[in-house]
Amino acid sequence: MNPRTISISVTPAGFVSLLTLILLTVVGCTRLSPGLITPGVLGLLVWVTSRWLARNSLQKISIDRNLPKRAFVGESFAIESRVRNTSRFLPASGCSIRDPFADTDKTVPSIHPNDSVHIEYPGKYGKRGPVVSRELLLSSKWPLGLFETSRNVVIESASRMTVLPSPFLPTKLQQHLDRLEQESLWSRAEFSDPASEFRLLREFRHGDSVRSIHWPSSLRCNALQVRETDPPGLQPLRNGIFLHSFVPPGQLETPERYEMVLRIVMALLLRFRSRRMEVLYYSGSGDPLLLSTAGQFDSAIIELATIQRSPLQNLGNITGLEKTYRSCDKIFAISDAPRSVWEEAVQSSFPGSICIDAESISKTTRPEVRKKRKAIV
Description:
The protein is an alpha+beta fold. It has four domains: 12-56; 61-164, Immunoglobulin-like, CATH 2.60.40.10; 191-232, no CATH class; 238-364, Rossmann fold, CATH 3.40.50. It has helices at residues 12-31, 34-56, 171-187, 215-221, 255-274, 294-306, 339-349, 358-364; strands at residues 6-10, 61-66, 70-72, 77-85, 95-98, 106-108, 115-123, 129-131, 135-140, 147-154, 161-164, 200-203, 225-228, 238-244, 278-282, 289-291, 330-335, 354-357. The strands form five sheets. The chain has a five-stranded antiparallel sheet. α5 (255-274) crosses α8 (358-364). The chain is elongated, with a radius of gyration of 35 Å.
């Protein structure tokens, strides 16, 4: 352990006690009074011993910290730390940990020599992206509060955490999505055909349709057998997410708006993944990706933590993706630019798409959802 990483300072109580002991010793020597010299010298010996103990109390302490693999910006997450005291003789008492993820210092219980303790506390981080924090500040005022010792503890096996944009779904958009799901229950359900593939056979019961009788099996069994088909299910929906950034001429770039649209995209991806809906996803650069499995959704979600803003040079680039999105039932066009600037270009390429911008969210927190327009035949 490198001793240069340890810093020690005298507390106000230690400074006052040192001046008192020096004054007591000087007065005792001036008056040749053993009653003043003895406590003064003994007090100075205790003061020096306390400094030695304070300096060596943190040298044998190590910390292992476990962070979650993923967290959301501004939301609390659990942190688990294990503090070890590998010293043979000196205990670790009155220690506190200053974690960059925690709001306040966390007190560590007393640790006996060659022992360890586990502590848990909440953490929070306010910026998206991969985070690796390898240092913690450990401080202590042991043994008598005369000195404050601190040391930067390096975490050897620091875990990497990915901070994702916090999902945000505006109220109007959420209501619109709920309404679309209710409509799909009636419009996309297809009832099973009695002549279709069956799951199993059972005996004929009163009220069964004659068309459902399986005659070959009935002749073999010498009893009427009926086809039992699977219940009708919903056909999978395919949604499109078109994320783009655009800076109109004469307007300043605002990173806050781009972060807001990333939060909406995060909420949409989480919602569609939980409902097992396919998504054709365009993140602003490259080619659109088809997300159908949990792994593909996870890759797109993690990408939101590191995605960089790449504004379109002109709105004419949108027309090149028109054919790709034809297979989508619904298209969600999201941008950090005002909707009045790009909505016409998007609707000409993707008729009936739902357009959302960050400007309306920042003003009312409820972006207006445009209804589907009829396509011109």
